[in-house]
């Protein structure tokens, strides 16, 4: 009987975790409110690099943190998310074989001048299974 109770408890916890709500974060940019999420139905977390280069990089972690490296190879920690509606539905523009989103990020710093949110284009190209940040930094993915 204890085994059945244990199995039921594991099943219940797994089901609850599977249907957990998205974490929606409200951000403010120049007195405009935006909402961001880190999950959009594609594997966006990962390492993004320029084609045929190893640096500079952008690293997006699943928890909304990451690293942004500039052309001078200075790495800075960031907080990031993809713009969504207040209810968590990602906002995007569908193209012929692509989808364009808005990626918001800010430098994770205690300096007041680096505490502003920056927006850039994030695109997914379905035909060649590639994702781009600002049209330059690329990551390949499989569906």
Overview of the structural elements:
The protein has one domain. A hairpin with a 3-residue loop joins strand 7 and strand 8. Strands 1, 2, 3, 4, 5, 6, 7, 8, 9, 10 and 11 form an eleven-stranded antiparallel sheet that branches. The radius of gyration is 18 Å and the shape is globular. The protein is mostly beta strands and 143 residues long. About 10% of the residues have low confidence.
Distinctive features:
143 residues, mainly beta, 1 helix, 11 strands
Please write out the topology.
Blueprint: H1 2-18, E1 25-29, E2 32-37, E3 46-49, E4 57-60, E5 65-69, E6 75-84, E7 92-94, E8 98-107, E9 118-125, E10 130-133, E11 137-140
Antiparallel strand pairs: 1-2, 2-6, 3-4, 4-5, 5-6, 6-8, 7-8, 8-9, 9-10, 10-11
**pLDDT < 50 runs, ≥5 residues:** 6-19
Query: Approximately how much beta-strand content do the residues carry?
Result: 35-45%
- Could you tell me the radius of gyration in angstroms? 18 Å
Question: How many strand units?
Answer: 11
What overall geometry do the principal axes of the alpha carbons give? globular
**How would you spell out the order of helices and strands?**
HEEEEEEEEEEE
Structural class: mainly beta
Q: Which whole number gives the mean pLDDT?
A: 86
Distance between the termini: 41 Å
């Amino acid at each position: 009987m204890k085994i059945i109770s244990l199995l039921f408890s594991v099943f219940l916890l797994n089901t609850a975790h599977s249907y957990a709500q998205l974490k929606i974060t409200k951000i403010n940019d120049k007195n405009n409110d935006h909402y961001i999420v880190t999950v959009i139905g594609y594997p966006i977390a990962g390492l993004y690099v320029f084609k045929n280069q190893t640096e500079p990089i952008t690293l997006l972690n699943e928890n909304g943190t990451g690293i942004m490296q500039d052309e001078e190879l200075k790495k800075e920690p960031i907080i990031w998310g993809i713009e969504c509606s207040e209810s968590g539905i990602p906002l995007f523009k569908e193209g012929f074989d692509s989808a364009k989103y808005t990626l918001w990020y800010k430098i994770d710093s205690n300096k007041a001048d680096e505490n502003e949110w920056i927006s850039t284009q994030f695109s997914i190209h379905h035909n060649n299974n590639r994702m781009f940040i600002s049209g330059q930094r690329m990551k390949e993915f499989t569906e």
